[in-house]
Amino acid sequence: MLTPTYGRDLELCTLLCESVDRHVSSFSKHYLLVPDQDVPLFSRFESERRIVLPASQFLPTWLRPLPSIFQRKRRQFWWSFRAKPASGWHVQQILKIAATITLPHQRFCVLDSDVVFFRDFDLSRFEYPGRIPLLTVPNAVTSTQVRHARWVETSHELLGLPTPPLPASDFIGHIIFWDQETTRAMASKIEAVTGLDWIEALCRVREFSEYMLYGYFAQNDAEFAARHTPTSRTGCVSYWDSPRLDETELNRLLGSADQHDFAFSATSFSGTPVPIIRAAIEERRTLLAPRATARERAALC
To answer: Is 125 helix (H, G, I), strand (E, B) or coil?
Structure first.
């Protein structure tokens, strides 16, 4: 499991780690990928199955973090002589790809620090060499979604593919599965098309989405498409908007979860207070517990 995070999301990451420890099974390691200066903040999460790794372990020496005096709204930036400064958001995307390429595992479950599990989730069915889900939402990206449309365009430019007309498929979501060999092949393809190291190519483009890149690469390569099963859902009830949720709105959203949902995410930039999320998730768990007990009793009968 891979989670890029940073100091500002410490509370959210705390909730994530607690929920992973409580509900997620059949994974070997949970890696937290953090800026070097934030390693001491996250070291308390380390355990037999969780490791905190500094960003510098995966980034080239030419990409360096700017001093804290250059932070904007407490957000870290990285600079180089090869491209314009990269934001922490860009670097988190790069870290997902780099960690998938280099860490000693064949399959990865990628989740951001604003995800929290409220039901048990067994990862054993996604082990290599079986197929893994590829979140694919056809015709979801339209011309009105300027940023998403641009990500579709840059993904195809970087991969040397003809840009499709809009509406186009979207591959962005929570709890995403990646295959290591597919990710390595994607990075190699970017380098072959651009003539640049793949990290430099992404830093120069800037407007990219790691999930769009992976999705379009896997979808357009027969060998790697065969390793994936397209799916329209991830099992995570997601809130992507900016306005913060209050307790009533959050409970209403969680109430929309069905029997196949096992996690929730309110995007960190919504500013939804973590105590409200924690209380709502705990209430959801309590509501689900009697049902689980009933099912267990039925199974015994």
So the answer is: helix
**pLDDT band at residue 71 using 50, 70 and 90 as cut-offs:** low
What tokens appear for 271 in the block? 């500013």
- Among residues of the chain, what percentage have pLDDT more than 70? 93
- CB-based contacts of 166-170 (< 8 A; 24+ apart in sequence): 166/141, 166/142, 167/139, 167/140, 167/141, 167/142, 168/139, 168/140, 168/141, 169/136, 169/137, 169/138, 169/139, 169/140, 169/141, 169/215, 169/216, 169/219, 170/136, 170/137, 170/140, 170/141, 170/212
Buried residues in 148-161 as b, exposed as e (16+ CB within 10 A): bbbbbbbbbbbbeb
Q: Tokens representing 72?
A: 């904007």
What phi, psi does 122 have (nearest 5°)?
-100, 120
CA 171 – CA 168 distance, rounded (Å) = 10
For 168-197, how does the pLDDT look when each residue is reduced to its tens digit (9 = 90+)? 999 999 999 999 999 999 999 999 999 999
How far apart, in Å, are the Cα atoms of 189 and each of 108, 164, 183, 197? 20, 18, 10, 10
User: Which residue, 26, 47, 33, 24, is CA-closest to 3?
Assistant: 33
Contact 285, 23 (CB under 8 A): no
CA-wise closest residue to 239 among 218, 198, 194, 270: 270
3-state secondary structure 30-58: EEEEECHHHHHHHHHHCCCCEEEEEHHHC
Instruction: Report pTM.
Output: 0.93
